[in-house]
Amino acid sequence: MLRSASYLARPRLPLHGSLRHASTQRPVSLVSAKSRSTALLVGLGGTVVVASYFLWPDSSRAAPTKENALLSPTHFTPVTVTSTEPCPDTNTRLMTFTVPQQSIPSLEEAAFEPIWSIYIKDDDIQVERPFTPLDGMDSEGRMKFWVKRYEKGEVGRWLHSKKPGDKIEIRGPLKTWPWREDEWDEVIMISGGTGITPFCQLIHKELLSQPSPNSKTRFTLLHSSRRPTELPPSEMLKPLIDYSQAHPDKLRLSLFVDAPDGSSHPAVPSSSLTVGRIGKAAIERATGSEKRTWWQRVLGLGASTETRVQDSGRGKVMFLVCGPDPMVSAIAGPFGRNFSQGEVGGVLGELGYDGDSVWKL
């Protein structure tokens, strides 16, 4: 769940000004023929303005479709839906799309360094949205996605209607966050709902896909869903659980649910879940920053960033936050204008972290 804009914003046109002017003239019985003609022209003009708002061309929509060119952000590429699988949460599906052989670019390109996404276009209404491949792309051009159907999510609902063999159009890859090897001693990922997808991609690339990971960075994932069945499906969660248990020095995983309602998750026993939302206490545990002097505890003060780093022995920490807007705001403060990063607020701001240590996806 990335915070990328879809199509470029259409121009703000004066949809109502002329129509409002026409409706506040003298009573119809007193309007001259000339006035009636003017009103008609104004009304027609208003109709044209409304139509132009919905049909106004923009650069994304005008991007060409190329069948025999390498996958690129500059044009759309037709790909095939090769599988679509139901999940415990009936509003989500695991879907695999396959890029044709002639369109598969070199996977060594910098754009494929995690975290990256693609845009998928809904051909019916000409709207695109960003989606993150869970495991990146393999040598056969396959990409797997966890797609949620939201009530007001046009593209997600459209994708849920697709069957194996159907064609869709995508463009990309587009880098979402500039990962740099060994830049951080620890990366702490905090996600909610489908916001876990970029973190699955990062963990897969840096840990799961390598027999002996070279990265010195430690990873911690705190993920939250409303109830157990809305957690990611077993195909996504089990590799993370197994790896965290086998290599706790490389990956730590904590799963949260708002309430333990309904059926249990097939891959996660209820005893392994924390009931409640991800908050200050969970983040302090993840950073090892619970240590405070007696006077700080009495006064309710947190340790400084330097004290936290020294106490935890973890060195430089980067927080990545991805999920629904209310969750992102509570953890790291709201996004800025036009989905810019904005100021760091929320729990992380309260704990003293700033823009050098926090990135909102």
UniProtKB/TrEMBL annotation:
<comment type="similarity">
    <text>Belongs to the flavoprotein pyridine nucleotide cytochrome reductase family.</text>
</comment>
<dbReference type="InterPro" id="IPR001834">
    <property type="entry name" value="CBR-like"/>
</dbReference>
<protein>
    <submittedName>
        <fullName>Ferredoxin reductase-like protein</fullName>
    </submittedName>
</protein>
<keyword id="KW-0274">FAD</keyword>
<feature type="binding site">
    <location>
        <position position="129"/>
    </location>
    <ligand>
        <name>FAD</name>
    </ligand>
</feature>
<dbReference type="InterPro" id="IPR008333">
    <property type="entry name" value="Cbr1-like_FAD-bd_dom"/>
</dbReference>
<feature type="domain" description="FAD-binding FR-type">
    <location>
        <begin position="74"/>
        <end position="180"/>
    </location>
</feature>
<dbReference type="Pfam" id="PF00175">
    <property type="entry name" value="NAD_binding_1"/>
</dbReference>
<keyword id="KW-0285">Flavoprotein</keyword>
<feature type="binding site">
    <location>
        <position position="155"/>
    </location>
    <ligand>
        <name>FAD</name>
    </ligand>
</feature>
<feature type="binding site">
    <location>
        <position position="130"/>
    </location>
    <ligand>
        <name>FAD</name>
    </ligand>
</feature>
<keyword id="KW-0560">Oxidoreductase</keyword>
<dbReference type="InterPro" id="IPR039261">
    <property type="entry name" value="FNR_nucleotide-bd"/>
</dbReference>
<dbReference type="InterPro" id="IPR001433">
    <property type="entry name" value="OxRdtase_FAD/NAD-bd"/>
</dbReference>
<feature type="binding site">
    <location>
        <position position="197"/>
    </location>
    <ligand>
        <name>FAD</name>
    </ligand>
</feature>
<dbReference type="InterPro" id="IPR017927">
    <property type="entry name" value="FAD-bd_FR_type"/>
</dbReference>
<feature type="binding site">
    <location>
        <position position="148"/>
    </location>
    <ligand>
        <name>FAD</name>
    </ligand>
</feature>
<dbReference type="GO" id="GO:0016491">
    <property type="term" value="F:oxidoreductase activity"/>
</dbReference>
<dbReference type="InterPro" id="IPR017938">
    <property type="entry name" value="Riboflavin_synthase-like_b-brl"/>
</dbReference>
<dbReference type="Pfam" id="PF00970">
    <property type="entry name" value="FAD_binding_6"/>
</dbReference>
